[in-house]
Amino acid sequence: MSGPGTTADRPSRFSGPEAKRIGRFLLAGGFAALVNWGARFPLNAVMPFGASVVAAYAIGMVVGFFLYRFFVFEAHEGRASDQLWKFILVNIVGAAEVWALALFFVHVAAPAIGWTLWVEPLAHAAAIGIGAATSYVGHRLLTFRGIG
pTM for the full model? Predict the structure, then answer.
């Protein structure tokens, strides 16, 4: 049933420009994650594993910042320094969220339902997916607020 005032008449919140922005966010974030992952290998040749993970994460964040700023949110006019500290804050919260969710899935949820197959990789993937959604919201509402 459709008619004036029904949901069939109203555009989805995630249609048009916002849906395209979300798609660009996923592409840019996926590329930044790939850069992060790939950067660790050469870094690991010159520094310990833990340090290479942190350095690679920082490289991925730099790539992500510029991709999000120019490709996703088209934030050319905003002050990069203002956006950068907010970007770092959103990423710190996102990293903590992914870490907490992954541990929750592995140590609480999986044992509670008897899940034993590929627990860590799937828990990590699920946590990253949830983290990507909240990261998008954080960058949209804080880092690049009022842009696009």
Answer: 0.70
